[in-house]
Please model this.
Amino acid sequence: MLDTLTRLSDSQARSSSLLPGWTIGHVVTHLARNADSHVRLLSAAERGEVTDQYEGGAAGRAAAIEAGAGRAAAALVADLRDSIAALEDKWHTASEVAWQGRGRGVTGEYSMTTLPFRRWGEVEIHHRDLGLGYTSNDWPDDFVRIELARLKAEWASRQPMGMTELPASVLALGPAERVAWLTGRLDVEGTPPAGIFA
Model:
């Protein structure tokens, strides 16, 4: 992802991403603040506390993204690089107590042991959302396999009893395209959106 952003220009940073209403600057800022939020969660868990992922909750998250989205490309990328370095350092230095702790996201509490995969998902999905040439077909096979199983289970849990298989039109797609549909990033003609993140 950082390689993709190496030549990011100021005009590109202000241009639309593949996420409705977000510029590339919004996506890059979100990825930086997401890394910060994981450091925040692990630091709280280290102290035996359960805290919100983002200070100020969803509103605080949105405000931080909006505040940083309009910066120059160099500032955006430097911020992201620094936040990644801080998160990786936290992963390496966090104690067993921290990893056994819990944090609180929008959908409820979760174990700190899920953070590395959560971060991987944020990076892969939003790398695609930048719209700078990295597509769902570039997602690593192991990421697609794990994420597809997780999202299929999430989708099935929201369906009427017994409706646990994906629509035939979606099953006809490749695995990465199915993940894209399940995350609301691919429209399939004649098939309603997955609706997981609605």
About this structure: The chain has a mean pLDDT of 95.
